[in-house]
């Protein structure tokens, strides 16, 4: 009988965009402001930080006091819907693969609602790694091609930082950075003392107001909850909402894209999706189709969009879609600064992230690994959440409390005194580094498994190489030196060694996945050209992390935004010339 | 209704029907009951999950809860800075957390029973029926991991868990946050570490930092 139908949207759009995160939000913004009619599909729920953020809630307003759940793995107040596991949407691992951790946000703005706002430009070297060390591949573009877009984005969205004149960490157009916190001053002193530079961080947080639409930061350190004042960059508040205000964007939430539709000539003409609220199938047409569903979901869509013209999946005559999958490397350690026991109380929140960081500072030619990493720091008097006070028996027997030696553990008024005494003395650091992309790190369609919508799921095949493991070893050695120089005691992460890859995080765990539809000049070894446009299908663009030929020792979001803006301007230009 | 305003931008037509249907589902009406206050930041799936938890029977028996109530106030008693764990409603928090995190259930239930068995062995009474002195005698045998006798190790594990959960429940309560004297979670302008604290640690901002960092009058 006719319950289930496929409904075709009558309106034909100039662009259908899949995904409303950094890449999709930017494309919607640029195209809508140029007068194009845009349909923005978002797999998840509507989300407006002004309404939906948990910002400024107190710990006791969560029945679990901010603990994580499967709905919000980063904590009960975190501004991201879903994460590692989504009900009814499994993914699998190939035999012999390391565990791949796959983060999937499902909301307007995607993971840009809760991310760390670390907004680093790629440097000139980051586009030409093969030319430098013979590994991986060069991008088909250079820093000079992207710089004008970084400049525009800095001004449009706002980022703080300091002018440092570093060769491979280009300066941006910066708002003033916040003053370092107490533990950051100590880190800075110790690290620079042993030759590790510490400079102001570069976060997309508005320390000064930049326009009427968005507010100024009020230093609650809760960027991760998303900001009701839009004082930090979230695609939801900074891109999608302004795009919608042009009147040129139709946003469809709860729309899970199934495949890209192509015509007999193999041209992408639209997207079919399932509406999760009524479980009906729909199709929407556009002159161009822009995929920004996050690197692996975009690859999945391409691979699931098979047709006679594209038997290997859309845009995949090269057979690289899903391959060269990489993520930032990550290793961390932390401890306590006895100098900070019994510290004076004041409001130390600051912004929702580090006020200082360390950009990669060494010459890889002198090291046993080819690519660099940056260092992130944390510590201080933060808001208590579930887990606060755990493990006191590991602290209160080791250090005299207010001059009095005690037995580890205990209870009573003495225990309360211990908690107060140790509060705010924690410190930690993590490396975020560049992994070398390899063709044998990939995701593919699992031939046996579909999700609850009947869409074939991804199967992952990823392992770390010696390059990443040696990089993690170097991270740990560096961190130990800094901690020692500071007079800090390491309480976790200090015992890692070769047997556990020096604490190297699972691939995917750092949530900077990229590479699955990489750019290149050669259509035999790349999926996209230098305009983020599919070699095989001129009406198809990929503007999320999938397009990245390599990762850099920098988070990829700012570059996603720059490349999406660049691709969108190209689309407008090509449409004017009637090439699209 | 906020939801209507927020879907202004969403497509009207064949697709919007689905979205509007979602906005008007019966679950919306359920939202306006007891626990719904302050749930505007929750996903639909979270609301459903919370409603399910609230309908569940209590996990702890009356006897277990009576034991917990005594234990939490031994761990976090009233002192001259702040109230006790029961003042901060820590027992209620524990009842919720074992339902939310079922992995705590067996260690808690088993640990409480272990404690009662010890109590019977030593005082021929359950923990709640002991005198205050007897209870402390028992607690002292399991509260100090580095001094506990070998036959007490399970009790040490249990007491570590009780201490962890009691401290967390207390210091994330309004009373506890005030006890800790956490000063944040309030809109402000960050002008750096206070001068007297800089002096205390013999630190200072550089000329460049003073000149270039954000400052607010």
Strand content of chain A is: 15-25%
Strand and helix order of chain A: EHEHEHHHEHEEEEHEEEHEEEHEEEH
Q: Classify the helix fraction of chain A into a percent range.
A: 10-25%
Radius of gyration computed on alpha carbons of chain B: 25 Å
Question: How is the biggest beta sheet of chain A arranged?
Answer: 8 strands, mixed
The pLDDT mean of chain A sits at: 97
Fraction in beta strands of chain B: under 5%
Largest contact between chains? A-B, 99 and 83 residues
Which structural category fits the helices and strands of chain A? alpha/beta
Instruction: State the helicity of chain B in percent bands.
Output: 55-70%
Number of helices of chain B: 12
Shape summary of chain A: globular
Low-confidence stretches of chain A: none
Mean pLDDT of chain B: 87
Number of strands of chain A: 17
**Rg of chain A, Cα atoms, Å:** 24 Å
Assembly form of the protein: heterodimer
Major sheet characteristics of chain B = none
Tally of separate helices of chain A: 10
Derived structural class of chain B: mainly alpha
**Order of helical and strand elements of chain B:** HHHHHHHHHHHH
Write the SSE topology.
The complex is a heterodimer of chains A (580) and B (217).
Chain A lengths: L5 E13 L3 H12 L4 E4 L7 H4 L39 E2 L35 H5 L9 H15 L24 H12 L5 E2 L34 H11 L3 E4 L2 E8 L5 E8 L4 E12 L3 H10 L24 E8 L19 E3 L14 E7 L33 H10 L3 E8 L8 E9 L5 E6 L4 H21 L2 E4 L40 E2 L2 E6 L14 H20 L4
Parallel strand pairs in A: 1-2, 1-8, 2-5, 3-14, 8-17
Antiparallel strand pairs in A: 4-10, 6-7, 7-8, 9-12, 9-15, 10-11, 11-12, 13-14, 16-17
Helix pairs in contact in A: 1-6, 1-10, 4-10, 5-9
Chain B lengths: L1 H5 L7 H10 L3 H5 L12 H12 L6 H14 L14 H11 L4 H19 L8 H11 L10 H19 L2 H7 L14 H6 L6 H6 L5
What does this structure look like?
The complex is a heterodimer of chains A (about 575) and B (about 220). Chain A has about 575 residues and is of the alpha/beta class. Chain A is built from ten helices and 17 strands. In chain A, about 20% of the residues lie in helices and about 20% in strands. In chain A, the strands form three sheets. In chain A, strands 1, 2, 5, 6, 7, 8, 16 and 17 form an eight-stranded mixed beta sheet that branches. The relative contact order of chain A is 0.19. The model of chain A has no long low-confidence stretch (mean pLDDT about 95). Chain B contains twelve helices and no strands. In chain B, helix 6 packs across helix 9 (about 155-170) and helix 7 (about 105-125) crosses helix 9. Chain B is extended and about 70 Å long. In chain B, about 30% of the residues are buried. Chains A and B meet through strand 1, helix 5, strand 5 and helix 8 of A and helix 2, helix 4, helix 6, helix 9 and helix 10 of B.
